[in-house]
Design goal:
Layout lengths: L9 E7 L10 E7 L2 E8 L2 E10 L3 E10 L4 E12 L5 E9 L5 E9 L2
Antiparallel strand pairs: 1-2, 1-8, 2-3, 3-4, 4-5, 5-6, 6-7, 7-8
Length: about 110
């Protein structure tokens, strides 16, 4: 287990599968309490989203719910591997699946200035 904490960090989409809504303009604002994480996210194709799950310092397991720019709701699940980059920023390589509609994929999030 590593010492990585997501508390207070802002991450943004770097890569995503075509069936995903998160992009470079989507910002995730994280809070962490022990092994529980939560984030509010918005930007790009996402009007508002919320993520909630667990994080053991290396891997997260989360559920998310969101409203897109067209006003449609969606829910899903993802499991991601969290690493620290050489410059101290955090990177997440995430495998996700929609639960409310068809689609699966992989995405990458990286820490940005808040």
């Amino acid at each position: 287990m590593t010492d990585i904490s997501l508390d207070g960090r802002t991450l943004a989409g770097v890569e995503n599968a075509a069936s995903g809504d998160v992009g470079r303009d989507t910002r995730f604002e994280f809070e962490q309490d022990g092994d529980r994480i939560r984030a509010r996210y918005a930007g790009g194709d996402v009007a508002e989203g919320h993520l909630l799950g667990t994080f053991d310092g290396d891997r997260w397991d989360v559920r998310y719910v969101q409203v897109d720019a067209a006003g449609e709701t969606a829910t899903g699940h993802s499991v991601g591997v969290v690493t620290e980059l050489p410059d101290g920023r955090v990177r997440v390589e995430d495998d996700w699946e929609w639960e409310s509609k068809p689609g699966t994929g992989s995405s990458v999030l990286e820490e940005v200035e808040s």
